[in-house]
Amino acid sequence: MEAPVLVVVLAAALSVSAQTDIRETRNIRLIDRIKSQGYPAELHQVTTIDGYVLSLHRIPYGRGGSPGPRPVVFVMHGLLSASSHFLHMGPEYAIAYNLADAGYDVWMGNQRGNRYSREHVSLNPNDAKEKLEFFDFSWEDVGTIDLPAMIDYALAFTGQEKLHYIGHSQGGTVFLVLASMNPEYSNKKIASAHLLAGVGFMENFPFAPLRRLSDFANIIYTLGTRLGIVEISFDALRRSARQTIEQNGVVDYCAGDDEYKAFCETTGVPYLMGNRLTLPVIPDMGGSSLKQIVHFGQNIKDGRFRRWDYGPLTNLRVYRTLTPPSFDLSKITVDVTMHYSLSDIVLHEIDVLAMAAVMPNTKARKIERNTFRHEDYIFSKDSKELVNDYIIEALHQFLV
Questions:
Q1: pLDDT value at residue 305
Q2: Annotated catalytic, 15?
Q3: What domains can you pick out in the chain, each with its CATH number?
Q4: For residue range 51-68, what is the model confidence (pLDDT) as tens digits?
Q5: Catalytic residue among 55, 374, 380, 383
């Protein structure tokens, strides 16, 4: 092997190794955090059929408990989130701890590309070219590939035949994707599901600013991929902005095209300024792909819950229809409870009731506090009384 080639290979290997070390450090810190709260904790990893290495965090039993078989509960995070958010409120209020103390074997999943699952068997998410392929996924891929990989692993490891599922926001979305596209699988392996503001139907999407921005969903995706911004996390956005400026200087990406001008005028983000990009800091931001966010944008714009829209010609080749097919929720026969609230800016009551109406074994449950928000399921102390205690009581009914 020639010296220049050897240098390139070694540099690539060191880069992948460094990123693996960062991911492992984050996982170890979270496991140590759980243990410091007085709970047993385990890190498990599973590789998907398309090469993503996913981390699962397990609390096998509660404080004062002992090892032994228990009913399995699988908990799945929302968009830009991670398993750590189910621990955020601490032992007294956080749903993962509450479930463990109630006698359940708790498994928390992490989707591909987030802070705990940012690894692939062959792709480097920090490489300018390889990241375009690494982050070319939507929540449909999370639902059809990541979820069954993690669920199968948890069931095989514990020797259980079925588990209970809890998903917040996009964690509910990916359940709807899996259960509608593969109902035989979900009926065989999921005993019940609790969707906490699970996003599906979007005909009445309540937050007007995002609804207006959704008109530019495809423009945002095209512009993002041109800029190399395909990962949405605080560090990733700063890194992409810095790379863009280093390569091109300060560029006005809104010039010339009327559609781009309209997007820039609406969003108020005409170009990258200077040598830095100012971003809001989201504590413990899990991260996601740009494509996930744009997929939601496509659905909000069209008022439909359906698959990724490639455009008419590619849709015809991929789906054999000019428009992407909708997810058929009538195929979902798992015992489902859809929890919702009136102050949720992401999910409207009308859409929740419409989903429940077409899913044969589903009920909608309104949170008693009308001011309960989308994020309160994981960041509000009264979520224990209003949500967690209800779910635990419902799960106990399966033990009778």
A1: 98
A2: no
A3: 19-202+327-399 (3.40.50.1820), 208-319 (no CATH)
A4: 999 999 999 999 988 999
A5: 374
